[in-house]
Amino acid sequence: MPIAKALELARESDLDLVEVAPTARPPVAKLMDYGKFKYESAMKAREARKNQAHTIIKEIKLRPKIDPHDYETKKGHVVRFLKAGDKVKVTIMFRGREQSRPELGFRLLNRLAEDVQELGFVESRPKQDGRNMIMVIGPHKKKAEAKAEAKAERDSRAQQQSDAGTA
């Protein structure tokens, strides 16, 4: 349809001629309210951004000679992060003569990976980076799945508490 005819039709129906797909051959235009079109396209973009997965990397720092209780505490943090669907970067900091014994760091990181293997997997193997040794553990579950599961668990707990309160 010629542009002049389309513009005349738009004027008659009190609408705007909006070019929807300018890169298409031939370009696609529609008769519609431009304000409504702008609003709807902004809402689509906003929804797409909302549904986009943004990865968060949490970091835990350890020392090669860590006390068993401290190790369990740090492992608990890693478990919590993995259950929430976040990646965990585990860093072992070497100081002084500890740098001459990197195998202690490897053993500690491998032990941690084995302890949390039901919740996550090793994304990057332990590697020395200057004074630090780094390993990244990723969750088996996606962030959305973890959030949904946590919400269901909270709801069931609330239901149990309300049932206990009425009994």
Automatic annotation (TrEMBL):
<dbReference type="GO" id="GO:0016020">
    <property type="term" value="C:membrane"/>
</dbReference>
<feature type="compositionally biased region" description="Basic and acidic residues">
    <location>
        <begin position="145"/>
        <end position="157"/>
    </location>
</feature>
<dbReference type="InterPro" id="IPR019814">
    <property type="entry name" value="Translation_initiation_fac_3_N"/>
</dbReference>
<dbReference type="InterPro" id="IPR019815">
    <property type="entry name" value="Translation_initiation_fac_3_C"/>
</dbReference>
<dbReference type="GO" id="GO:0003743">
    <property type="term" value="F:translation initiation factor activity"/>
</dbReference>
<dbReference type="GO" id="GO:0032790">
    <property type="term" value="P:ribosome disassembly"/>
</dbReference>
<keyword id="KW-0648">Protein biosynthesis</keyword>
<comment type="similarity">
    <text>Belongs to the IF-3 family.</text>
</comment>
<keyword id="KW-0963">Cytoplasm</keyword>
<dbReference type="InterPro" id="IPR036788">
    <property type="entry name" value="T_IF-3_C_sf"/>
</dbReference>
<dbReference type="Pfam" id="PF00707">
    <property type="entry name" value="IF3_C"/>
</dbReference>
<keyword id="KW-0396">Initiation factor</keyword>
<dbReference type="GO" id="GO:0043022">
    <property type="term" value="F:ribosome binding"/>
</dbReference>
<feature type="domain" description="Translation initiation factor 3 N-terminal">
    <location>
        <begin position="1"/>
        <end position="48"/>
    </location>
</feature>
<feature type="region of interest" description="Disordered">
    <location>
        <begin position="140"/>
        <end position="167"/>
    </location>
</feature>
<dbReference type="InterPro" id="IPR036787">
    <property type="entry name" value="T_IF-3_N_sf"/>
</dbReference>
<dbReference type="GO" id="GO:0005829">
    <property type="term" value="C:cytosol"/>
</dbReference>
<feature type="compositionally biased region" description="Polar residues">
    <location>
        <begin position="158"/>
        <end position="167"/>
    </location>
</feature>
<feature type="domain" description="Translation initiation factor 3 C-terminal">
    <location>
        <begin position="57"/>
        <end position="139"/>
    </location>
</feature>
<dbReference type="Pfam" id="PF05198">
    <property type="entry name" value="IF3_N"/>
</dbReference>
<dbReference type="InterPro" id="IPR001288">
    <property type="entry name" value="Translation_initiation_fac_3"/>
</dbReference>
<protein>
    <recommendedName>
        <fullName>Translation initiation factor IF-3</fullName>
    </recommendedName>
</protein>
